[in-house]
Amino acid sequence: MKFTINASLIISIFFVFLIFTPLSFANALESKTGVTHSSKVWIPEEEFLSYFDSNGIYTVVGNVKNENNFAVIPTISVSVKDDDIMYSNTIQHVPLAAGKEIPFKIKFPEVIGNTPILMPSKMTFDKTEKEPISIEVFYDKTLIIHEDGHITGKIQNTGDKTIHYPKVFAVVHGYEKVLDIVQNMNFIEKIGPGEVVDFSMYPDPSITSDIYYYSCFAVTDSFVRPVYTERNGEKFYFRYDSGSWYTAPQFNEKGTELTMRTQNSFPIGTYANFEFPSFSEDEKFSVFVNNELKKNIQSIDEMKNWHVAFNVEPLESGEIKITGFKEGYDPGDAVLIPDWIKFSAAWWADKEIDNDVFVRGIDFMIKEKIIIVSGTSDEIQNRELIIPEWFRNNALWWSQDNINNETFAKGLEYLINHGIVQV
Questions:
Q1: Which of 324, 346, 335, 342 is nearest to 278 (CA)?
Q2: 344, HSE (Cβ side, Cα atoms, 13 Å)
Q3: 47 — phi, psi (to 5°)?
Q4: Separation between Cα atoms, residue 369 and residue 179, nearest integer Å
Q5: Beta strands 317-323 and 257-263: pairing type?
Q6: Predicted local confidence at residue 195, as pLDDT
């Protein structure tokens, strides 16, 4: 059944939804099966679900709420049982400000059974510092659900600083149930103080006839999907930002070509922006979709990462191949360092995040053997002691590639040997 409602009714329903989502509503759900709770960071049961999308890809969506009086970085783990095989996926989301919420979506292309079972989600979080982003959605007649189920609207930067790469998310509702999680399809490079920008969102075509209203609009200032695959026997980390999906990354034997599955289920064009670590100034990338050459823009950022950006056509799906990676690939120090760790080190050096969040990155590097610290176990056990200021300088220099992994690891080893950080 198709429900047709006008913009004013959409807004009315949305504000009714807001009125009935206080802490008391959250507490009423605490005893229900399948609800993730970690202090006051949680995923409501009715906002955690799965479906097969229009291309037959098993899709899991959810909505994380932060009811603490401080910001958090949520990490969500989702598992699906397909016959006798368990598939799991973990994502670390963007910082979530106090009292805010953020949806997520995870694709499982490897699930091929007819009756997969979605297991209860698991979630942890790290306390961090994050002011609410100064972007507001206009809840007025410009927020419109169109006949085909997609929605358009406007956002405004109400702060005094330019915000780069904002993302708009929303929860899509049917009659008395959640159907999907969506994000803006159009690329927004930046939004200056006072500036107003249009956005558009498309739900999966498989559920468009059941859409009733949208709610839980959330805006973030950054959101990229971290991915890794194996390249010449080593882990290769990269990230991408897109309105489309890319899965099953795989390099060829020489490590010069990266192939993935691509899926844009929507009857509208979108974009993709891939970020790869740079190993040579001579790397020149080409993008092919289903063996057809696609025009792309290549650039390098201040962290010496390549960016390969291109437009995605409506309903563009199949195989994507990116060529031009340096042959004779030698990972060295830089390749095994995911950029989010170096960004974290820089933020910690500037006291923008606390010790706990920074040490989490150290945990990851020790577990993944990215840095080798003699005499350590696989996890840092004590995060309560004060880390000296001189190590902040090391972290900043390391994040800027002014010192190498070995020098940084020696500083960390000093902290461990003197009981400042215990393992």
A1: 335
A2: 22
A3: -115, 25
A4: 41
A5: antiparallel
A6: 95
User: Cα(44)–Cα(25) distance, rounded to whole angstroms?
Assistant: 10
Residue 133 pLDDT > 90 = no
With CA atoms as reference, report the closest residue to 245 among 229, 225, 259: 225
Task: Specify the pairing of strand 41-43 against strand 71-82.
Answer: unpaired
At 317-370, the pLDDT tens digits run 899 999 999 887 665 544 445 556 666 677 777 776 667 667 766 776 676 666
CA distances from 151 to 54, 95, 208, 312, 322 (A): 19, 26, 11, 19, 32
152 burial (CB, 10 Å; 0-12 / 13-18 / 19+) is middle
Q: In the structure encoding, which two tokens stand for residue 56, read together?
A: 């037959």
pLDDT, position 156: 95
Structural domain boundaries of the chain? 7-220, 225-334, 339-417
Distance from C-alpha of 95 to C-alpha of 123, rounded to nearest angstrom: 14
User: Tokens 């799965």 map to which residue?
Assistant: 50
Reading the block at residue 357, the tokens are 């969040």
Q: What is the pTM of this model?
A: 0.62
Determine the topology of domain 225-334 in CATH.
Immunoglobulin-like (2.60.40)
In the block, residue with structure tokens 């970020």: 275
Q: pLDDT digit string (tens) for 143-157?
A: 999 988 899 999 999
> CA 423 to CA 420: how far, in whole Å?
10
- Token code pair at residue 329: 């690939």
